[in-house]
Amino acid sequence: QLQLQESGPGLVKPSETLSLTCTVSGGSISSSSYYWGWIRQPPGKGLEWIGSIYYSGSTYYNPSLKSRVTISVDTSKNQFSLKLSSVTAADTAVYYCARHSGWLRDWGQGTLVTVSS
Amino acid sequence: EIVLTQSPGTLSLSPGERATLSCRASQSVSSSYLAWYQQKPGQAPRLLIYGASSRATGIPDRFSGSGSGTDFTLTISRLEPEDFAVYYCQQYGSSTGFGQGTKVEIK
C-alpha cells in the first residue's frame, strides 16, 4: 500500500525559505500515471493546492504562489520536495503531500509548519 | 481560474437524515473533473468521489455524487455518526483548486 510521509522543520523564521520533503514508500514515484503534489491548510481554514510535479520534472503551480514555489523530484530516493521562499505568518499551515491523477487519492498525514521569529 | 463555491457553509442534521451539499463552479468544469473529500479533525482529507459521480475504493454507497458543467452535488443518503465532518469539492479540469468547505454537524 502506498504511503507518503512529509518531513522538515516545524518552525521557520519570517523571510526565510520553507523546505519540506515527501518520501514515498510502497510504490514508485516514477509511475507514469501520477502527479505528486503539495497542498496546505492554515489552522482552522480550508485546503489550498500549492503545486504538483511529474516524475519527469514537469511542474505546475498555483498562480497565487508561483513566484515563491519550487517543487522538485528525486527519483533515486523516491522523494519529492517543496521550497517556499520569503515566508510570512500567512504561510503557517499543515502541509500535505499527495499522489494524484487529477483527484488526490493518497495523502500524507501532514506536517505543521509555523512561521515565527 | 475556476472558483468553487460550496453551500451551505454549515449543515446541521441528525443521524439518519439525508445531507445534500452543493458545489458551484464559476466556469464549466471540463469532463466533470470534480472530486469530493471528507476531512475529520486532525486527519488528512479522504477521497470520496471523483469524476463527479464515481465512488472511490472502499467508500460506502450512501455517498453519491452528481452534476455537470457548473453545478455539482454530494449526497449522503442516511447520515451515520462517523459522517459528521467537513467536506470539500475540488476541480481538476483546469489546473486545480478547492471549494471552501461545508461542515456537516450534529443537530
Describe the 3D structure.
The complex is a heterodimer of chains A (117) and B (107). Chain A contains no helices and eleven strands. Chain A is mainly β and 117 residues long. Chain A starts with a strand and ends with a strand. The mean pLDDT of chain A is 95. In chain B, 0% of the residues lie in helices and 50% in strands. In chain B, a hairpin with a 3-residue loop joins strand 5 and strand 6. Chain B is globular, with a radius of gyration of 13 Å. The N and C termini of chain B lie far apart (36 Å). Chains A and B meet through strand 5 and strand 10 of A and strand 5 and strand 10 of B.
List the helices and strands and how they pair.
The complex is a heterodimer of chains A (117) and B (107).
Chain A: E1 3-7, E2 11-12, E3 18-25, E4 35-41, E5 48-54, E6 59-61, E7 69-74, E8 79-84, E9 93-101, E10 103-107, E11 111-115
Parallel strand pairs in A: 2-11
Antiparallel strand pairs in A: 1-3, 3-8, 4-5, 4-9, 5-6, 7-8, 9-10, 9-11
Chain B: E1 4-7, E2 10-13, E3 19-25, E4 34-39, E5 46-50, E6 54-55, E7 63-68, E8 71-76, E9 86-91, E10 97-98, E11 102-106
Order of helices and strands of chain A: EEEEEEEEEEE
Class from secondary-structure proportions of chain A: mainly beta
Strand tally of chain A: 11
Order of helices and strands of chain B: EEEEEEEEEEE
